[in-house]
Amino acid sequence: ARSLRGGAPLRRALSDTYDSWLAGLVPDGGIARVAVGGVGRREPAPYSDRESVRLHDGRVLPAEGWEGRK
Questions:
Q1: CA 14 to chain centre
Q2: How many other C-beta atoms are found inside a 10 Å radius of the C-beta of residue 52?
Q3: Which long-range contacts (CB under 8 A, 24 or more apart) does 8-17 make?
Q4: Most distant CA pair in the chain: distance in Å?
Q5: Reduced to 3 states, what is the DSSP secondary structure of residue 65?
Q6: Tens digit of pLDDT for each residue in 53-70?
Q7: 46: left (phi over 0), alpha (psi -120 to 50) or beta
Q8: pLDDT (tens digit, 9 = 90+) per residue, 4-62?
Q9: Which of 29, 40, 45, 57 is placed for a possible disulfide with 36 were both Cys, Cβ 3.0 to 4.6 Å?
C-alpha cells in the first residue's frame, strides 16, 4: 500500500475527498460550488481553510431540499 504521509499522494487524496464533498453540497441544475485557492489548484494543505464560490444561473430555486445544507 502507498503511504499518504505527505507530498503529491496526500494532496491528490485530499483533493479527491474535497471534490466529492463539494459535489454533494448543491442539488443538480443551475448551481455549482467551485473550489478556489489551494483546493481549487488541487494543492490543499492539511488543516487549511476550504475556500469555495457558489455560482448560479439566476433562477430562484424552491427551499425544499436545502434543509441542513451550509
A1: 10
A2: 18
A3: 10/46, 11/42, 11/43, 11/44, 12/42, 14/44, 14/46, 15/39, 15/42, 15/43, 15/44
A4: 47
A5: coil
A6: 888 888 776 666 555 555
A7: beta
A8: 567 888 888 888 888 888 888 777 777 788 888 888 888 887 777 888 888 888 877 66
A9: 40
